[in-house]
Amino acid sequence: MDKKEFLKAISNNLKGFDKSEITEILAYYEEIIADKMENGLTEEDAIASLGNIDDITNEIKVNLVLKRSDKKISNSLKSFIIILGICSSPILLPLGFAFAVLFLSIFIVLFTLIFVFGFTGICVILAVFIHSFSTLSTGGDIASIFIQLGLGLMSSAFLIGLTIELYKAMKLLLNKINRLFLKTIKKKTKKGEEVNA
Questions:
Q1: How confident is the model at residue 181, as a pLDDT?
Q2: CA pair distance 30, 135, nearest whole angstrom
Q3: pTM across the whole model
Q4: Phi and psi dihedrals of 17, rounded to 5?
Q5: Which ranges of the chain have pLDDT less than 50?
Q6: Is 173 exposed, middle or buried (0-12, 13-18, 19+ CB in 10 A)?
């Protein structure tokens, strides 16, 4: 494999990442190949010394997702899909399965809680307004209507606030789970490289 084919293979395996990230990685590998060639290796030998293209791109993906989560620009679900792709190799398959089960379980539970609290908050607002309107139309006391409205709005504001905070906590927790599994993958692949060496 020559340098052009090697860089094209890396670029193809990193589709879905930002162009700037891919450009930076390709420049890095061009420089490594050039350094190895300056030390007397042929282009093919320099590329062969780098290892398997799939292992290289999996490590790049792990590093990119870790870098993104450090910068807080990470999308938990997109990172989840990337990690599952990395875990498609036979040695990482059990880890990928455990990660998928854990991630999806936590996601479903937290999403359900967010939906329930948010939906309940909206329903409380609607119920209070409907009840207040019916009380007003039947000639009810205006003071009790305002008390109902106040209590209803306070409880719905609490539920909606809880929904927002739960959403933030869900994003944080899912990002932490992604980071944990990425670090585990990194350790496992390094152990695999040491065993193969």
A1: 82
A2: 76
A3: 0.60
A4: -90, 165
A5: none
A6: middle
